[in-house]
Amino acid sequence: MRGTEQLDVLLNDDTLGADHRRIAQKVAENQRIEFDEGVFLFEHGSLSYVGVLANYIREKKNGDNTYFNRNFHIEPTNLCVYDCKFCSYSRLIKQRGDADAWAFSMDEMLDIVWKYDEQPVTEVHIVGGVLPQYDLPFYLELFQKIKKHRPELHIKALTPVEYQYIFKKAKVSYEEGMKMIKEAGVDSLPGGGAEIFHPEIREQIAADKCNAEQWLRLHEIWHELGMRSNATMLYGHIEQFHHRVDHLERLRELQDKTGGFQTFIPLKFRNQDNQMSHVPESTTVEDLRNYAISRIYLDNFDHIKTYWPMIGRTTAQLALAFGVDDLDGTIDDTTKIYSMAGSEEQHPALTTQQLVDMIRRVGRRPIERDTLYNVLQDFTDVEFEEDKAYRGYIELPVVQN
After folding, report:
1. Torsion sign (Cα): 207, 189, 309, 118
2. Which residues pair with 8 in a beta bridge?
3. 305: helix, coil or strand?
4. How far apart are CA 39 and CA 196, in angstroms?
5. Residues of 269-290 as b/e, b for ≥16 C-beta within 10 angstroms?
6. What is the pLDDT of residues 26-42, one digit of tens each?
7. Are β-strands 375-378 and 365-369 bridged in parallel, bridged antiparallel, or unpaired?
8. What is the pTM of this model?
9. Which terminus of the chain is more solvent-facing, meaning fewer CB atoms within 10 Å of its CB: N or C?
10. In the chain, what are the domains?
11. Within 10 A of 177 (CB to CB), how many other CB atoms are there?
């Protein structure tokens, strides 16, 4: 049943309460829901109810198209000057000698890029810990060398957490700094470091790094330069529902102002090996509700992405019926951020064929995109023999159409 049909059935349900009906009618009429209505959805919206609304919006915006790209990550270091309570990935500088700590040299990072010279990747995603030696001159040189070597490779690099630190250290303004990294070859910003914007929560889980206003301002400046970026929210820990809606509201307000955000990625808190291990993780039902309500609330965002290494392949497939239209990319086992926190995917890598098969199995159209959502190939009717260039972690059967 299509999203419009599902919504019609919902609106004709005589048992639907007045508040639920009012919100559903607003969605049907393309009207924006307000803060209190967002909180209401989190408090009283069943999975099936919010799923119908989110799927309607998803199909209205993107049809059955489900996007992915061919990408890899560089994580320069997991050593960090900050001590975020939720982080299982980072190590303090005094732990530099630990077996699970690393700090790559520039040549080692460039070697990772060279490794993909013969492969049809379109994006390198660069994000990691914050260390004094990874300063503004270091990153400017790194970006310039990557772009000189492979001009067509899209560089999506560093979060406001990293930029706020290196600009302060370099004694340059945010405006000067963002212009410099654009000129060095950065093409877009990832969405990390947002966590939860509300100070009641942020000061408990990430008090020593950039605050919400700084995070938002850096993205705003980037958008003013004509560039695009993503946004995230870390959910499912000590925040309350109104903190989530506050986070979504701030993103929606900035998007109204600049239009520079491409996609929103809810990030599930994982509790392995961090200072918040006593906090239970959210259930799959709550994960799907959060995706759906994010899709409903962020009416001015074109895309909602699930990061499949974080929640696993099965839940990622389910999310495609709850407002999600993007599965991220092939990744090729180049990130440890979530595997170190206990995610389902300990070796995150998928072949193009596997991603396409995941999408097809739930009745959606697999579309390879570049980072800016330009369509590179529609894989709906492509028949694979084998994609040896992207042999993944688990082999799937050959797709027959």
Report:
1. negative
2. none
3. strand
4. 15
5. bbbeebebeebebbebeebbbb
6. 999 999 999 999 999 99
7. antiparallel
8. 0.90
9. C
10. 65-390 (3.20.20.70)
11. 21
